[in-house]
Amino acid sequence: MSTSVANPVAPSKVPQTAADLEHVDVQFSLSKLWENYRELAKPKIALMVLFSMGVGYLLGSAGEWTLWPLLNASVGVFLAVVASSCFNQAIEATTDSRMARTKNRPIPAGKLTVQQVYLIAIVCSVSSFLYLVLTVNMLTAVLTLGTTVLYAGLYTPLKRYSVLCTAVGAIPGAAPPVLGWVAAGGQLNMVAFSLFAILFVWQFPHFLAIAWMYRDEYLRAGLKMVPGSGREQMVGRVAFAYSLVLIPISLLPRHYGLAGDFYAVVALILGFIYARSSWKFAKDESRQQARRVLFASLFYLPGVLLALAFDHLRLLS
After folding, report:
1. pTM value?
2. Which residue spans traverse the membrane (predicted)?
3. What is the number of domains present in the chain?
């Protein structure tokens, strides 16, 4: 009497030959490579940039909204975001290795070399400029290239020397809605400035909260990100001051006719919430209060932009 036992492992799922093993190895390598490139691109930041740019495009299109120019502008601006991030990580490879929050980035972790990342940055930057020139317009291409140059060439190295780096970095950070505005054919006027101003001022409480939370890491890395030379409550007070300035600034689109009363009410409510969190941070400089400022900032910006886009469309209809 004989018995047979079925093999519980499906042979087709187990690599049996050198070719199978090589295929698995290639898949693993491609997956790791994709993760490294994704880390370089910072997709969450890129998504917020494209969203802000899209709102600017909608506002600048004067009711004549078309899809292809927006898609072309999105491609070009996305390439510029990748280029800026790559330049930043290549320049800060040494300081990134000294901080826990950045030591696992591709360069300090040894996954990519500085030369490789610089090459990606240059290719993306040139491609962005040429693509925008050919598919959108020269003004959008020049401004987009300017944001990359300012971010990588001035803001990033300035972080080692002066706390003014935050103000310099806020300029390219506030550019996305303006890029969308000019991509739609808008001019560089006070209306475009009103969009720029909102994002410019919004960034200060946001980044000051981050700088305060990671102040010890920045200090060890030799980066000057925290104003006040360590004076107690100085960071919170500066953040609160900017949050107050943001409230009247946020009403400029209403003044210039981009939106109506609905937007104004939403902007005021969100502005007071942002200011309240900053005020609490000024009174109690703690990690908990800093995180609340950060959360309020991340709630404020998409909320204001969505309200602006919605109310603009309402007025057009």
Report:
1. 0.86
2. 45-63, 69-91, 112-132, 138-156, 163-184, 190-214, 235-256, 262-281, 293-310
3. 2
